[in-house]
Amino acid sequence: MALSGVVCKDRGELRIHESLDELSTDLADYIAELSEASVKERGVFSIALSGGSLIGLMGKLSEAPYNRTVDWAKWYIFWADERVVAKNHTDSNYKLAKDGLLSKVPIIPSHVHSINDAVSAEEAASEYEFVIRQLVKARMVSVSEVSDCPKFDLILLGMGPDGHVASLFPNHAVLNEKSEWVTFITDSPKPPPERITFTLPVINSASNVAMVVAGEAKSEAVHLAIDNVEPDCSKLPARMVQPTTGKLVWFLDKGAASKLDGDQFSKS
Ligand SMILES: O=C1O[C@H](COP(=O)(O)O)[C@@H](O)[C@H](O)[C@H]1O
């Protein structure tokens, strides 16, 4: 059973699950509920995906009851980060999501906004930002009154064992990017090297951010991202995820949560 409804000061809500199966069900319920609420309020649901293990953990969305109950035609899909490779390349976050989810549910193809993979990382980032600007103008994506950034209904992030989120890696200069919505890197420490990524101001402007992390190999980074630790860790990318007005929820399995102190939690 999940340890849920636990709020860790300003580090968001923690949902710690006994098994990956339980985590996946809770994640599917959470996404389906946010989708329903956004469609009711705004008529659409803008969601940004990541790559990696996240997509497998979202797999239940393509099964009953979600495949029938979710209003897929109202979804507008983006990527919080993407590797600059062809769309049919095994490293492509688009391909991962297409094979694992998007091809299995009735999404409208024109609502799927992936990068142009035929240009440089720099051009791909700038074109992707332009696309998002058009959709903000058309109100498919809301705008944050605080930051003027797009306000996605939901941004889903994974986290690497080094604490990276999207393609924001520890000690990288793009962590300081304040003016651009989408930026690029050509020196990713994790292959492939060329990537585009949402910047921190965009991530922190979302209405909801979910951090989905599983496995003991990530437990130290989870501890540094959530617990009260030395000030040095304030620069860990995962710790820099702090939605300004939105809600942050951590979906963890027991392994990922195994190094959390636990003594700083308070019931919500
Ligand atoms: O390279 C990436 O890694 C992170 C984490 O991946 P995971 O497999 O360890 O969960 C992912 O969130 C990001 O989108 C991806 O480009």
Automatic annotation (TrEMBL):
CDD domains: 6PGL. InterPro entries: 6-phosphogluconolactonase_DevB, 6PGL, Glc/Gal-6P_isomerase, NagB/RpiA_transferase-like. GO terms for molecular function: 6-phosphogluconolactonase activity. SUPFAM superfamilies: NagB/RpiA/CoA transferase-like. Its EC number is 3.1.1.31. Pfam families: Glucosamine_iso (PF01182). The keyword Transferase does not apply. GO terms for cellular component: cytoplasm. Pathway: Carbohydrate degradation; pentose phosphate pathway; D-ribulose 5-phosphate from D-glucose 6-phosphate (oxidative stage): step 2/3. It catalyses: 6-phospho-D-glucono-1,5-lactone + H2O = 6-phospho-D-gluconate + H(+). Residues 20-250 form the Glucosamine/galactosamine-6-phosphate isomerase domain. Keywords: Hydrolase. Belongs to the glucosamine/galactosamine-6-phosphate isomerase family. 6-phosphogluconolactonase subfamily. This is Probable 6-phosphogluconolactonase. It comes from Eucalyptus globulus (Tasmanian blue gum).
